[in-house]
Specification:
mainly alpha; 11 helices; globular
């Protein structure tokens, strides 16, 4: 069986997949609380204009933008955005269950036990919302390190005409600034990373407990 055939039919046997799973697991565990914080604050500040005057919204905006630590906080946000992007990409790769099972991995089995339900929810929600989470990761990285985008783009677009337009759209996408209907949708979708962090933490804790019990039995 070639590597491609193995990937298409039995991805669980792939050494690359196992490595990516470990990266996904450990990076996700390390960035879990950060992701939840960014997710919850991001969903709220989508309505920053509407909440202005009724809620300490500017404090939340600064918390989301730089963790209340100015440039140092923005640097941390950039690192966090890299982590989110890495989690997103590795998650999409390890999600692939093989040709026979990919349809089942798109949905949640509501009658299954808690551990299975949690796994299904993490897997299905993650793959359905993959593009949104990836967009937030990339745009978050752009806000922290804009020169990382402008420097290579200037090689093919010296006047920054198209680069500015593309990055402007990326910024608007980050906040969903396309009318109240999209803002409402973004506020709901913005909670997805928090859901993924929570379900991922459950998976992580269960695996650690299982591994500990296995060592004890030996």
């Amino acid at each position: 069986m070639t590597a491609l055939q193995q990937w298409l039919q039995h991805p669980e046997r792939s050494g690359v997949r196992k490595t990516l799973f470990q990266i996904h697991l450990w990076v996700g565990a390390g960035a879990g609380l950060y992701v939840m914080l960014m997710s919850l604050t991001g969903s709220i500040i989508v309505f920053r204009n509407e909440l202005s005057g009724w809620f300490p919204i500017e404090w939340l905006v600064k918390l989301h933008e730089n963790l209340l630590f100015g440039e140092k906080g923005r640097l941390v946000n950039g690192i966090g955005a890299i982590a989110v992007t890495m989690i997103c990409l590795t998650g999409a790769i390890i999600w692939w269950p093989g040709l026979k099972n990919w349809r089942r991995s798109l949905k949640v089995s509501w009658r299954s036990r808690l551990a299975r339900f949690n796994w299904d929810a993490h897997s299905a929600v993650g793959i359905w919302c993959f593009l949104f989470v990836l967009m937030w990761g990339i745009s978050g990285f752009y806000f922290s390190f804009p020169q990382a985008f402008y420097a290579p783009a200037s090689l093919v677009d010296p006047t920054d005409k198209y680069t500015d337009a593309i990055l402007f759209v990326l910024s608007e996408l980050h906040f969903g600034r396309f009318g109240w209907c999209i803002e409402a949708l973004w506020a709901v979708l913005g909670l997805v990373p928090a859901v993924l962090a929570f379900t991922g933490a459950f998976i992580y804790c269960r695996r650690m407990t299982t591994a500990k019990n296995t060592r004890y039995l030996r």
